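Milestone M4 deliverable, item 7.
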Amino acid sequence: MFLRSSFYFYQLNQIKGSGLYGGKVRGDVGMSKTKWRQELVGWGFIALPVIMISIFIFYPMVQAFILSLQSGMGINLEFVGFANYRRLFQDAMFIAAVRNTLTYLVIQVPIMILLALVFSVLLNRKDLKGRGFFRTAIFLPAITSLVAYATVFGSIFGPQGLINALLVNGGFAPMGWLTEPLLARATIIMAITWRWTGYNMIFYLASLQNIDESIYEAARIDGATGIQQFFRITIPMLKPIILFTSIMSTIGTLQLFDEVVNITVGGPGNATLTITQYIYNHAFVFAPNFGYSATISFAIVVMVIILSAIQFKVGGDR
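Output delivered:
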């Protein structure tokens, strides 16, 4: 019995000496320190972006809202509360700008999305020769300068521009592309579509390459035509990307500025005036009123939120 007890006592001392007793506690402390260090490193990586976003995005947003409650410019600002927001509903020119912008949105965005889908499907064909050239050619307008291409469009569709020259040579009368309201809006829509179709096409093209080819093979075996495959397979599979591009295109159209300023200057008779151009006019063209300009900018924010919510609802929860 004594020898057995001595043996147990010896084993106990060996275990204690080896550090197994309390090892779990020391391990937990070490793990907690490691986890804390990892979290500290993670916070260190995101701290700078959070600070920069707060300084250059959230702080200006708050300041812009405060400015929208004031009227005037510079140091001569006067607090007017929500008078600027009430003024929006009585401003005929603002209502006209909203109507023009929504016209561009309703007509141009669906056309652009459909064209981008068709181009992406055609350029995804493996048997198409020169795919790289056509992809580059369609995407190239998206990387051109906004001011440069808008100026070129204004020159082409001008009274003495290329389009009217071709019409005259073909025996037709020249058209007032920039002087008639309906044609001026059509010119703006054509310009926007030309520039941004290729940009959206790239998103669809990348998504199409992730769709399993066996799905189309099974559809062809079942006798599905190309049009049926497009509407029954391609569009449903690209639904999340279509929703994304629709929202981004909506935001971009609501902020439309360069094309209108450089092609039609908002004319004729404010027929092509957009919301962002109206903001610019109140800040730098008319008698400067930075407070009212900020108010109009928040009207765009509200419109973006409402239209995006509608598109998310139509697109489904997924």
